[in-house]
Amino acid sequence: MWYFGLVTGVYVNRDRPVGFGFKALVGGGEATAAQQYYAYPQRRPGPGAPVYVTGGYHTGIFVFEPEANVVVHVNRHMTLTGGVGYRFTGDPYYGYNGYDTGGLNGVTGTVSLQIGAGL
Q1: pLDDT in tens, 59-106
Q2: What's the pLDDT score for residue 5?
Q3: DSSP per-residue string spanning 58-96
Q4: Residue 1, SS3?
Q5: Strand, helix or coil for residue 101
Q6: pLDDT for 104
Q7: Quick check: 63 and 33 in contact, CB under 8 A?
Q8: What is the pTM of this model?
Q9: Contacts with 64 (C-beta within 8 Å, 6 or more apart), sequence order
Q10: Computed from CA positions of residues 65, 107, 31, 101, in that sequence, does the dihedral angle turn out positive or negative?
Q11: 63 within 8 A of 30, measured Cβ to Cβ
């Protein structure tokens, strides 16, 4: 999976030792999602035992990823930021033949260290 997009956010208390913020990514990309399905034609190794095959499909995805951050100003030229968010994905083929990229959704975490004056 890969994706990119526009990131925008709002931060408060940037001039204090500890600040808070919220940002969100809105974008798109591509993913290969695994899908389990019945083999065709169905071959049965034993009475009443269906054969499942795991395959995959490649698709474009829409991504929305909101995130809450805490900013700690270590000193005048160093800032440590930690955040937690959630990645939501959408697939144009959602539900088509049972395909679903819902497994790509999930909690995200970030840690960054900025060295330099910055803005």
Answers
A1: 788 999 999 999 999 988 899 999 999 999 887 666 555 555 567 889
A2: 96
A3: EEEEEEEEEEEEEEEEEETTEEEEEEEEEEEEE-TTTTG
A4: coil
A5: coil
A6: 81
A7: no
A8: 0.69
A9: 24, 25, 26, 87, 88, 90
A10: negative
A11: no
Which residues, listed in sequence order, are joined to residue 92 by a DSSP beta bridge? none
Distance of CA 62 to the CA centre of its chain: 10
* Percentages (nearest 5) of helix, strand, coil residues in the chain: 5, 65, 30
d(CA 4, CA 10): 20
Both tokens of 66, joined, read 């909101």
Q: In the Cβ-directed half-sphere of 54, how many Cα atoms lie within 13 Å? A: 3
Quote the tokens at residue 93.
């083929």
Strand order across the beta sheet in which 18-38 lies:
2-12, 18-38, 52-75, 78-90, 106-115
CA distances from 100 to 29, 57, 96 (A): 16, 10, 8
Neighbours of 87 (CB within 10 A): 17
5: three-class secondary structure by DSSP: strand
